[in-house]
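not sure who needs this but someone in the group chat was asking about DUF429 domain-containing protein from Micromonospora saelicesensis so here u go. i didnt clean anything up, its just raw.
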Amino acid sequence: MLTAGIDLAAEDANTAVAWIRWSAVGAVLEELVVGAGDDELLRAASAADKAGIDCPLGWPEPFVEFIIAHHHGELAAPTDLIGRDWRRTLAWRRTDVVTHELTGRLSLSVAADRIAHTAMRCAALLARLAEGGQPVDRSGGGTVVEVYPAASLKQWGLPHRGYKGRQNSGALNDLVDGLTSIAPWLQLGAFESACRGSDHAVDAVVAALTARAAAIGQATRPAETDLAAATTEGWIALPTAPLTSLTTASAKG
């Protein structure tokens, strides 16, 4: 099995993509690109059995309806909620709420934060994948699945805060140490130095690991009641088993 992980940003410079090849006994980081352009991202998503993208795959349904109604001058003034409570119903997707309940981490709002710029790029990538014949299912049922590396790290008991940015290089190295200690079967090879020097590289690797969890049924899926929202808004796959279980005998491929 080949999984890909994409740490997506609005611009190429802060975008990273990782390819991990899996066997019955371990995994090898085959390729890692920091500063990845659209063509490299599409190549990864097209070649992989499962590709994890660290970016919202859609916008909150209530927010979309709000924008459409406002655009057409048909917005009805809210009567049941006002102020912050009302805005929160527009700002976060169902998967953001569920992820917060499960991990205590609240995702950035794709409707009200700068991550919207990244999501615009993601939407264009998904459209190109679909045009190329790739099955695109925002709920995670196709090749692509939405991931949240910091939440995955927390689920796996690894450091998940304070490792971003050059000023936190020590914390980033501690994270890589923890990852390689818990998962000695993961061979970073020549790319270990890149992981120690770039949080984007590490997030891409974690995204590829989470894609593996999703591919073998060791990650959350939307409940039946959430499926309709997940299909349009996207759904974050959270690991449900220890990191060590990604290479167990029951994990075929």
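also The beta strands are 2-7, 16-22, 27-34, 50-54, 144-146, 186-187. if thats useful
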